[in-house]
Amino acid sequence: MKNAMAQFRGKLILACVLAALLVVGAAAARLTYRNFRIATDIDQVEAEIAALEREKEEVESAIAGIQDVASLERAAREQLNLQREGEKVVILLPTGEEEVKPEETAVFVQKEPNNPEKWWKFFFAE
Q1: Can you give the pTM of this predicted structure?
Q2: How many folded domains does the chain comprise?
């Protein structure tokens, strides 16, 4: 009977040790996964911070350019094809091309629509 009791105690101790190892292993696996998720989240946030910092630098450089009146005027002339009143537009053509007559060039001036036109466009324009 003592021998059977000793075997039972040995099996009970072994079962307790295995259960403890299982609990400790599960906790370690859970913590390892949690650390992996946190590291992944940190990498994503750092990438987002870097993108936002680049965007901030672009916006700051644009603001600095807008604050300079000469650069604002130059941008309006280049991008919107604007000119001052009384100025004449000169078009330089490569040699061998036909000359463009001033009557054939068009200057597009966009007028701001009045309120009835805006409402008409709001309700009926596609």
Answers
A1: 0.41
A2: 1
Length of the chain: 126
Contacts of 105 (CB under 8 A, 6+ apart): 89, 91
Hey, what amino acid is at 34? R
d(CA 44, CA 24): 30
Angle (CA) 46-52-53 rounded to 5° is 90
Residue 68: domain span: 2-124
Cα–Cα distance, 68 to 59 (Å, whole number): 14
Rounded Cα gap, residues 57 and 60, in angstroms: 5
Condensed to tens digits (0 to 9), the pLDDT of residues 51-88 reads: 999 999 999 888 877 777 777 777 777 777 777 777 77
Residue-by-residue DSSP string for 59-104 = HHHHHHHHHSHHHHHHHHHHHH----TT--------TTSPPPPGGG
* pLDDT tens digits, 91-104: 666 766 666 565 55
- Other CB atoms within 10 A of residue 9 CB: 10
